[in-house]
């Protein structure tokens, strides 16, 4: 198991590409569920990227929309169609976790160890980095761990 600290608006390069059947665990030290009053929206997302910079999977909790958005895009391409799940009730604690299990053909995503989504892979390539970004008025902190099964 390899442990990484993932700061706000940063990217961590994994020590090596995550092979198929690997698991990425993202643990947060806190959870802020209200969008910024000044911006009127919350735009938090976690991106799994390959070595080319393609976004293999974005996970974007949008509390103001009561939705979790899943999507992908190539580095110079457009976003694909959004896949959404209802957000309400998905986070069970105020120190939530997101677990992403990488199958050969899809990702299996868990929030607080409860299944949320199977997301079919649209772009191939192993995960080489994890990015965490937010709009500047929101405060979330996630830690990232990556390990093989």
Automatic annotation (TrEMBL):
This protein's record includes keyword Cell wall biogenesis/degradation: no
GO molecular function, one term: carbohydrate binding
Pfam families from the UniProt entry: Gal-bind_lectin (PF00337)
Keywords assigned by UniProt, alphabetized: Lectin
PROSITE patterns (alphabetical): GALECTIN (PS51304)
Lipid biosynthesis in keyword set: no
The organism's place on the tree of life at top rank: Eukaryota
Gene3D superfamilies per record: 2.60.120.200
Residue span(s) of domain Galectin: 10-149
This protein's name: Galectin
Native organism: Ascodesmis nigricans
């Amino acid at each position: 198991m390899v442990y990484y600290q993932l700061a706000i608006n940063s990217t961590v390069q994994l020590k090596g590409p995550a092979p198929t059947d690997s698991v990425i665990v993202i643990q947060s030290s806190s959870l802020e569920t209200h969008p910024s009053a000044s911006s009127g929206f919350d735009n938090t997302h976690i991106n799994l990227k390959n070595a080319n910079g393609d976004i293999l999977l974005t996970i974007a909790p949008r509390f103001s929309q009561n939705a979790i958005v899943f999507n992908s895009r190539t580095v110079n391409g457009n976003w694909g169609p959004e896949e959404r799940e209802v957000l309400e009730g998905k986070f069970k604690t105020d120190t939530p976790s997101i677990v992403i299990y990488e199958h050969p053909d899809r990702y299996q995503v868990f929030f607080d160890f409860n299944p949320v989504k199977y997301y079919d892979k649209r772009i191939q390539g192993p995960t080489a980095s994890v990015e965490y970004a937010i709009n500047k008025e929101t405060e979330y902190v996630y830690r990232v761990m990556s390990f093989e099964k």
